[in-house]
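Saturday, quiet lab. Running sequence design on the structure tokens for the scaffold JK sent over.
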């Protein structure tokens, strides 16, 4: 072995042994036996002796255990780490492209590579003779913080590169936390009273900056490579070739596309914006880079960003605004919810002016007050919510909004049941707010399904006193209705027909439409299947009710209370007088031979042929138990398009996963 070969082997052994020390001492998870470890260590001792050069203090021959002694020390990058310029509109992309054509020449062939912009933190990983030697955060671009020990547990980063790479080689990319790991971490933190992170990016940064590397390891961080530093120049001819090579070495890389014209770039951006909510990690835009490295070199850099790359940002999902008022909304069952009314802002492409504060505990925990600057968030299809208040200056803040003692709509007393976070209006159906919600629920698609009976009509009917209970839906005064603005003859005729045609109703729908507390669609279906007739359900005692799978004491009490209440009996009586007929349930007894009988299934994603709710009911009729979350008790996951974390979890747990085609086959 010549001197250089010895040197290289020494580096490789030091890197490898450090890795094993880390596995053994930090993670308690050795990857090799003690004997194998000793053989490697002895080889290193011999080679270090042969080389007869000073041995560094951190060589595994000089240390025992795993010393995180370099944690967060400054680390200079071999080549500065650049940042990216941002674009927020198609016009800025057109300008970006035009600048390239001006500098190169008008008809230069330009191909752009599009990469999602991962929302995490940039890391530089330094390899010497193919061994991971250290890793550092971006810092100010020139010097970062040493996070070598912590980076070793991040998925997507190899510790050694079995390939012909430059002796000194830097690989760069983004460390991030998946949405699933983020949710799991925050849940755990909440349970143990630890720090709850505002978003996956903060969680990733907080998790990487841990003095105890085993904590970082428990946080499930991941990595995507997107660039090289030192040693990168002669390594590939284009960004696409570079990513391909890095991927072959064992680095995780993202899905990319090569695009030749601006329209393709705009379309690609739109496609990914739509894809964004279903991805397992957060992205905040698309990065467009000139693909060819020679062209990149000609274009060069300005300030701290290259001219050849740009980040086309998505509209923010988190935005700041000001709370103008906190009001109280009364729901169908009387629950009173605090709502933040804010100066309207555009969040992820939608104007938002109101956001729920959930309940009085949440309101107190977030301590949101009138006049506060707040951060609001809307991720994907999720209802906007107030993340936090930014106002902490107690002296110049409004007092906390008092919890109402009477219903803001009907003035009835407000009550709170023991153990419940919610406060409720005790006004029952005499509260117009409750009545409005009740009517909307009653006529909704999964209830009586009365076409043309929308929210506005329900509200107007209550406001004008034409409807005083859900039974009145079948006793509308169409002559008065016809005098209302916008209520033409055709609308009235259609509404009459729609109401008439729905008077015969299946028992399960009827139970659901009544809006009894705790009775959702699934329970309504179980009740109908079990009792077959409304009469049997009304007559059921607690014992009979508890025989049903998804009926517990709370649900049983709620049902008994509903049917025992005199006013409710009257309303039902009126409905029958107005011609409503509840059909007995005809679902055959569950066929225990069906492959789904007694199986616990979870449905996720979207389906093209069937609605999720519909599938749920049909599955129940086949004897399956439909659960909402995947756990080790799940037998089957039915995954449609865009299935996300549930699918991942099922795969991890080794649960059987089937697609829509299989679902339809079972249902047929
Ligand atoms: S390239 C020379 N590609 O965005 C260009 N950066 O706002 C260096 N980022 O500091 C960056 N995804 O932390 C590049 N596919 C991607 C990226 C990406 C996320 C981050 C990176 C950078 C920041 C700039």
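Result came back. Writing it out in full:
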């Amino acid at each position: 072995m010549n001197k250089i070969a010895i040197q290289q082997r020494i580096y490789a052994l030091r890197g490898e042994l450090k890795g094993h020390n880390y596995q053994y001492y930090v993670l308690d998870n050795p990857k090799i036996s003690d004997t194998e470890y000793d053989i490697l260590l002895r080889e290193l001792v011999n080679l270090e002796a042969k080389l007869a050069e000073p041995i560094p203090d951190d060589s595994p021959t000089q240390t025992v255990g795993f010393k995180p002694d370099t944690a967060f020390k400054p680390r200079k990058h071999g080549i500065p780490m650049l940042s990216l310029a941002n674009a927020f509109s198609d016009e800025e992309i057109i300008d970006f492209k035009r600048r390239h054509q001006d500098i190169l020449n008008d008809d230069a062939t330009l191909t752009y590579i599009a990469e999602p912009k991962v929302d995490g933190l940039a890391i530089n990983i330094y390899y010497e003779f193919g061994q991971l030697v250290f890793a550092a955060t971006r810092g100010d671009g020139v010097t970062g913080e040493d996070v070598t020990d912590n980076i070793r547990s991040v998925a997507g980063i190899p510790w050694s590169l079995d390939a012909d790479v430059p002796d000194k080689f830097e690989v760069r990319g983004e460390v991030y936390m998946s949405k699933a790991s983020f949710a799991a971490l925050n849940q755990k933190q909440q349970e143990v009273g630890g720090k709850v992170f505002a978003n996956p990016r903060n969680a990733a940064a907080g998790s990487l900056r841990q003095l105890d590397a085993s904590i970082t390891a428990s946080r499930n961080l991941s990595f995507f490579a997107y660039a090289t530093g030192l040693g990168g120049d002669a390594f590939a001819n284009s960004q696409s070739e570079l990513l391909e090579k890095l991927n072959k070495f064992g680095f995780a890389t993202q899905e990319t596309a090569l695009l030749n014209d601006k329209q393709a770039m705009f379309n690609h951006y739109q496609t990914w914006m739509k894809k964004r909510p279903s991805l397992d990690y957060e992205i905040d835009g698309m990065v467009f880079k000139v693909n060819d490295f020679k062209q990149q070199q000609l274009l060069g850099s300005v300030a701290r960003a290259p001219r050849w790359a740009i980040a086309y940002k998505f509209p923010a999902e988190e935005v700041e605004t000001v709370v103008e008022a906190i009001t109280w909304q009364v729901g169908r069952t009387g629950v009173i919810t605090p709502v933040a009314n804010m100066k309207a802002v555009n969040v992820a492409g939608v104007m938002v002016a109101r956001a729920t504060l959930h309940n009085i505990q949440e309101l107190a925990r977030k301590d949101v007050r009138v006049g506060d600057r707040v951060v609001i968030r809307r991720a994907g299809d999720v209802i906007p919510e107030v993340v936090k208040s930014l106002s902490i200056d107690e002296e110049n803040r409004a007092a906390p909004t008092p919890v109402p003692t009477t219903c803001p709509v009907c003035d009835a007393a407000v009550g709170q049941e023991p153990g419940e976070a919610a406060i409720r209006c005790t006004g029952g159906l005499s509260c117009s707010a409750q009545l409005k919600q009740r009517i909307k629920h009653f006529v909704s698609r999964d209830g009586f399904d009365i076409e043309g009976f929308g929210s506005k009509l329900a509200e107007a009917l209550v406001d004008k006193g034409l409807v005083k209970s859900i039974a009145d839906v079948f006793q509308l005064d169409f002559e008065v209705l016809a005098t209302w603005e916008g209520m033409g003859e055709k609308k009235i005729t259609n509404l009459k027909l729609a109401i008439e045609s729905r008077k015969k109703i299946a028992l399960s729908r009827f139970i659901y439409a009544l809006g009894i507390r705790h009775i959702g669609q699934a329970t309504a279906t179980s009740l109908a299947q079990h009792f077959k007739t409304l009469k049997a359900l009304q007559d059921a005692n607690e014992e009979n009710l508890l025989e049903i799978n998804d009926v517990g004491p709370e649900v049983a009490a709620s049902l008994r209370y509903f049917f025992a209440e005199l006013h409710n009996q009257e309303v039902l009586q009126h409905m029958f007088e107005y011609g409503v007929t509840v059909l007995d349930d005809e679902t055959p007894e569950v066929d225990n031979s069906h492959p789904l009988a007694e199986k616990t299934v979870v449905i996720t994603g979207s389906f093209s042929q069937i609605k999720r709710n519909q599938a749920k009911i049909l599955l129940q009729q086949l004897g399956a138990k439909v659960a909402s979350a995947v756990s080790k008790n799940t037998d089957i996951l039915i995954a449609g398009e865009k299935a996300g974390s549930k699918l991942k979890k099922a795969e991890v747990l080794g649960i059987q996963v089937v697609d829509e085609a299989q679902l339809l086959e079972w249902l047929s």
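Notes for JK: The domain at 3-67 is CATH 1.10.287.610 (Helix Hairpins). The mean pLDDT is 89. Ask whether to fix the surface positions before the next round.
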